[in-house]
Fold this protein.
Amino acid sequence: MAVVEVKNIQGGKVSELELPDSIFNVSVKKSVLHDVARMQMAGRRRGTAAVKRRSDVKGSGAKLFRQKGTGRARRGDIRSPLLKGGGVAFGPSPRSYALKMPKKVRRLALKMAISSKFQAETLVVLDRFELDQIKTKAVAKVIDALNLEKPLIVIDQADAALELSARNIPGVKVLRAEGLNVYDILNHQHLVLLEPSVKAIEGRLAA
C-alpha cells in the first residue's frame, strides 16, 4: 500500500497514513482522463444559443414581385434568408451537449486523477483544518505554510467557516468528498485531503 505523511496546518508531520493502491496508485491513462473531463465540461454547457428561422420572423408571406420581367433576382417573401431582416438559414438551435460514459469508466477516471496527484507528489493529507471564525487571511496563511499552489481542498462534511473563508482566494476551492470529480482535480495543482475525507473517498470508490 502507498504511504503518505499526515500533516497539520502548520506543515509539521503528525503521522503516516496507508492508502490503498487500488484507488491512490493506479496506472494513469491520459485518454481516459481526457474523455471524462470532456464529458463534464460538455455537460456544463447551457446549449441555449438560438436564431430566428424563416418561420419565426414577422412579415408577409406574399411574393415581393412577379417572377419574370423585372430584371431583378427572383424573390420569395420578405422573410427570405437572403434579405436583411429575414430568417437565418443555418444558425444554431437549442440543444444538449451532454455526453454519456459508462459508470465504470467514470469511476476509473476518478481513481486515475487522484493517483496522478499522488504520483506527482502533489497530494497532501491534513489531520484537520479547523477555523474559529470565517477569516480569509487564516486560510491564506495555511496555504503559504504548506507551499500549496492552486489547491483543491476536500472535506468530509459541510464546514461553513472553511468554505466561506476560502471562496475569495483566487485558485482555491473547497469541495466535499461526495462532489469530488475528475475536472476539478486536474484543474488544480495540489490536492489537499482532510484525513476523514480519505475514508469517505475509499468508501465511494471501493466497489
User: Anything to note?
Assistant: The chain has a mean pLDDT of 93. The first strand starts at residue 2 and ends at 7.
